[in-house]
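URGENT: need a sanity check before tomorrow's submission.

F., can you look over the Putative exodeoxyribonuclease III record below? I want to be sure the sequence and structure line up before it goes out.
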Amino acid sequence: MLTVTTVNVNGLRAAAKKGFLPWLGGTAADVVCLQEVRAEPGELTAPVREPDGWHTVHAPADTKGRAGVAVYTRREPEGVRVGFGSAEFDGSGRYLEVDLPGVTVASLYLPSGEVGTERQEEKERFMGEFLPYLKELRERAAAGGREVLVCGDWNIAHREADIKNWKANRKKSGFLPEERAWLSRVYDEAAYVDVVRKLHPDAEGPYSWWSYRGRAFDNDAGWRIDLLVGTQGLAERAVKAQVERAASYDQRWSDHAPVTAVFGG
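Structure tokens as predicted:
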């Protein structure tokens, strides 16, 4: 069995003050992928940077206080790689891979974008480089008899079922037709599988991000943008997937909720 969780912590130092460590202490996950860490390892307290019982790898952004990804594993990784061979993005704290027995697990923080701005152009450049890499990664893993799981904040809601207020967001970054088409290519051309959607094909959501504004969380007006995207062999082994939604607004330690999948042997 392998249990993997992904969560955008919206600043790990802030999350640690709100309940991240008790959650980590109670999780059954073998691997935890974090996004938007927004801190250098030296800026984190020791219990957060290197919790007992975990091996941790941090990939902060070159730009202080931005992005940042990390992977926490119960078992020491056999290999670690930061970035995906991109001159522009390898130092941006957006992608990190670790090798475990039989599987490569990655933490991804895809740029969020904003229509009509440079941020959207940056997102498009990232997507343009990342898709060919995903294909290469799958092929390389298959040649070595390995599976791949890319976990993280993909910042794209793929289908209408993945966003509560989809009609009002058709022209917003994260639900643009071209972004959704790109994610379709990840599944069709690159032959990856959305693990949560595979196990919950007809569900509305389950959403993983809710704005702090208004009553989005209370009304479950969310987006499903935190994804575990795996190669087909691994996805076939998925037996359970869930969003660990907080019981109430005041118990949240991020605007995202952890998304967890369990894979059989």
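My own read: Residues 118-143 form the longest helix (26 residues). Residues 2-263 form a domain with the Deoxyribonuclease I; Chain A fold (CATH 3.60.10.10). If you see anything odd, call me.
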